Amino acid sequence: MRLLCLLLLTALSWAAEPSTAIKLDQAGYPPDAPKLAMVVAEQPAREFHLRREADGKSVFKGSLSEALEDANSGDRVQLADFSSFRQTGRYYLDVPGVGRSYSFDIKPDVYRRAYYLAMRSFYGQRCGIAVNMGPEFPQYRYAECHREGAWHPSSGKEGARESKFGWHDAGDYGRYIVNSGLSTGTLLWAHELFGKRLARIRLDIPESGNGVPDILNEIRWNLEWMLTMQDDDGGVFHKQTSEQFAGFVMPEKDTATSYVIGTGAEPFKGSCATGDFAAVMAIAQRAYAPYDKAFAKRAGDAAARAWEWLTKHPNVLFRNPRPVGTGAYGDFDCSDERLWAAAELWRSTGGKAYHDYFLANYQKFVKQVRRPSWPSVGSMGLWTYALARRKDANAEALNAIRQATIDAANAIATRTEQNPYRISMEPRDYVWGSNGEAANYSLLLLVANQLAPDRCYRNAALDNLHYLLGRNTFSVSWVTWVGTNWYKNPHHRPSGADGIAEPWPGLLSGGPNRGRADPALKKLPANLPPMKMWVDDQESYAGNEIAINWNAPLVFVLAGFLPD
Predict the structure, then answer these.
(1) Cis peptide preceding 427, ω within 30 of 0
(2) Are residues 69 and 14 in the same domain?
(3) Of 491, 492, 498, 518, which is the active-site residue?
(4) What confidence tens digit (pLDDT) does each residue in 144-176 have?
(5) Looking at residue 169, what DSSP letter applies?
(6) pLDDT class for 3, splitting at 50, 70, 90?
(7) 530 domain residue, yes or no
(8) CA distances (Å), origin 402, targets 345, 385, 472, 554, 556
(9) DSSP codes, 293-328
(10) 172 an active-site residue?
(11) Is 491 part of the annotated catalytic residue set?
(12) Residue-number span of the structural domain to which 426 is assigned
């Protein structure tokens, strides 16, 4: 009778609906990595079983930890550790008294599909071309868009101007140099650090099969737009948008003029945009050289001209001129962009002027090594200097950068290990785009691992990825079409306007935002802990928008965990 009861319970758990009380990475786990799931139940559970999805057979049994109080979520979290189990396959967790989890894989290339979808999402953001996400997702498509361009009065020019290339920045249809700079630079770094494993992955984009890695094929679409934003004197205009955000219409239905927008006064271009541009084009110079020497030279020449402009205009700031109301991406200090530009130009060319500038200015940034963000790219400059491994590098600078990065990574890894959800996030990190913050913590840790290999850095970086893919208080995958229980209602105009229930694939939600910065978040109950300040609502632009600068570090981290 007891055996019959056990078999019946096993069959019931096999057929039951998954419980959101069991939180795990819905994509899965690499065989040789730590494997933790979190259980949050009204009454603490005692044990768990790892079961094969195919037949429900228990292949591993373990005890749950004592419940840990997590201030960021308000949850009492128990850990299920099945790290020692390494057999590939598809499984689920069964926790008696709680339920069964979503199914997941254990395999070496467990993140290959997530990488494919997240990187391919940039194709779904293309401007100026008809987009069709087939063959797998042919229902997601739109016609050629935003080809009507003009100079805005704030640019110091007038008349029509051709509009082409680029990625829609976020849930809106604007194109912004500053945010494109960090996003494109991050993707180029993914190619530089992990390119051998990425070169084999076909993204099914129009350029696939041309002999160039598809990650570079996709990046080039945005680089071509960035190049159109450079003026004859080398300076770079800040953005190209309509004067106000479009409504929730498909891209080709947004017929407002796409303006090149400037600062409104001489010299009309901005220093932060020009610095980001110079840095990215310098990376492109070396990344594309093996595949297209002419384009690599074009990018390098553009970077050099931008640097010359920057030496004459080091801190021309941008604010939205009236009546423009699209994203400002304003910054009070462009010295970090200039440092990044100097480092990338030196790395690509060895130019003495770039090296001298870097050595004269890097010290203040060493004191504040941090995860990158669009207003703060100084660490990108430090890291590219250390990763360059050039013979003319300054030993004192290298040692300082390496030690500062190790110190930052050690602090983050320690904090991550002590967190009940095993994430790097602090309460202050639950801001607009907090999921991008989580991904950029992992980027920092993976860069640190390049400079000083340490398994703890990789484990902590992987922990943040687990959080994004379902091991969180909501038990939701914050990447559309990855896992089983992905979020459904991004603040993303094509997803909201196409008449299709499911959202476009590969998009990372902005994530919890303690700031209650939109009407949907303001409707949530008072005094919620920061991790619970999120709602799957299209109207939540401050919590559920998508953006290229969040998807880019996600791509970087996924690339870092693909097999060689």
Answers:
(1) no
(2) yes
(3) 491
(4) 999 889 999 999 999 999 899 999 999 999 999
(5) -
(6) very low
(7) no
(8) 20, 10, 32, 24, 20
(9) HHHHHHHHHHHHHHHHHHHH-TT----PPTT--S--
(10) yes
(11) yes
(12) 112-476+544-560
Indicate if the pLDDT at residue 10 is higher than 80. no
Q: What is the 3-state secondary structure (H, E, C) of 196-218?
A: HHHCCCCCCCCCCCCCCCHHHHH
Please answer whether residues 448 and 386 qualify as being in contact, where contact means their C-beta atoms are separated by less than 8 angstroms: no
Angle made by CA atoms 125, 130, 136, in degrees to the nearest 5 = 70
Please indicate, yes or no, whether residues 118 and 101 belong to a single structural domain of this protein.
no
pLDDT for residue 504 is more than 70: yes
Question: Parallel, antiparallel, or unpaired: how do β-strands 75-81 and 47-52 relate?
Answer: unpaired
Strand pairing report for 28-29 and 104-106: parallel
pLDDT tens readout for residues 275-301: 999 999 999 999 999 999 999 999 999
Separation CA 538–CA 60 (nearest Å): 40
| Boundary residue ending a domain (70, 87, 106) | 106
User: Both ends of the chain: CA-CA distance in Å?
Assistant: 50
* Domain shared by 100 and 135, yes or no: no
Place of tokens 């997702």: 137
Which residues of 182-303 form beta strands (DSSP E)? 239-241, 258-261
Residues 88 and 206 occupy one common structural domain: no
Element containing residue 22 per DSSP (H, E): strand 22-23
Closest CA to 122 of 233, 203, 198: 203
Catalytic entry in 172, 218, 254, 437: 172
Catalytic residue among 224, 292, 536, 539: 536
Closest alpha carbon to 235 in 335, 321, 157, 312: 312
Asked about 545 being catalytic, the answer comes back as yes
CATH code at 82?
2.60.40.10
Residues 183, 546: contact at Cβ < 8 Å? no
64-73 pLDDT, tens digit per residue, is 999 999 999 9
pLDDT tens sequence across 346-378: 999 999 999 999 999 999 999 999 999 999 999
